[in-house]
Amino acid sequence: MSRRPIIAGNWKMNMTRAQAEELITALKPLVKDAKAEVAICVPYTDIDVAVRLCAGSNIKVGAENVAWAEKGAFTGEISADMLLELGTEYVIIGHSERRQYFGETDASVNARLKTALAKGLKPIVCVGETLEERETDKTADVIKKQITGAFDGISADDAAKVVVAYEPVWAIGTGRTATSAQAQETIAGIRAEIAALYGAAIADGMRIQYGGSMNAKNVKELMAQPDIDGGLIGGASLKAADFSLVVNYDA
Fold first, then answer.
1. Are 165 and 127 in contact (CB under 8 A)?
2. What is the mean pLDDT of residues 150-177?
3. What's the mean pLDDT in 127-131?
């Protein structure tokens, strides 16, 4: 099955509104002919700027998190309705930094995913192991636990709408990157877990990104792997020229 790659930038806690406007203005002409789907997932304060500037372009706008509740006493959270009102299309759920620093669990990822799907947001669900887990041969077990936890109670029709991002925690922001063989092996394992839950058709159609320090130097080798359908890009998404080289990897 043919899967259109998706390259998504994850700005994390970077970019003021003025900086966002400068970056997006520079980026648009550089990626306008991209064959891959292009998205930028930006801080909440930049969403309206990003939506306005990306209107009419091929760049989709996403958020970096979404609450599981529709509204209420959840200080610091942001609801799906708030994101949709601003024009948000994608949302990252369960990023390793949310798990590491803010107590995100498989259960809370599942709750956020259900809300995002119910509201019509397009989720990018992140999974991945730590260095200790990889070095003790626990990668497959960790991935299985995170996938089954995230997709608990999710219908096949809804699962088909989800993008999964494999993020080896040890390769995020460290400059270290999984080899193309390591990335392919683990992402193939993710696809196998999806197949076990939903069948081969859903698994074959699901887009699975690599999210561990993908950049202009390694993108071609990573994207040549049969199960890798794009990237969730951190540092390289903060400069228009760098991000465009990743997006246009096949140019």
1. yes
2. 91
3. 93
Angle at Cα 65 formed by Cα 87 and Cα 198, nearest 5°?
A: 95
Q: Which of these, 62, 19, 38, lies nearest to 239 by C-alpha position? A: 19
Residue 212 has a pLDDT of: 84
pLDDT digits (tens, 9 = 90+) for 73-97: 999 999 999 999 999 999 999 999 9
Q: What is the pLDDT of residues 24-40, one digit of tens each?
A: 999 999 999 999 999 99
Give the 3-state secondary structure of the chain: CCCCCEEEEECCCCCCHHHHHHHHHHHHHHHCCCCCEEEEECCHHHHHHHHHHHCCCCEEEEECCCCCCCCCCCCCCCCHHHHHHHCCCEEEECCHHHHHHHCCCHHHHHHHHHHHHHHCCEEEEEECCCHHHHHCCCHHHHHHHHHHHHCCCCCHHHHCCCEEEECCHHHCCCCCCCCHHHHHHHHHHHHHHHHHHHCHHHHHHCCEEECCCCCCCCHHHHHCCCCCCEEEECHHHCCHHHHHHHHCCCC
**Distance between CA atoms of residues 3 and 169, nearest Å:** 25
Which residues are part of the catalytic machinery?
95, 167
Is the distance from CB of 92 to CB of 65 less than 8 angstroms?
yes
Question: Quick check: 94 and 41 in contact, CB under 8 A?
Answer: no
Quick: pLDDT tens for 229-238. Answer: 999 999 999 9
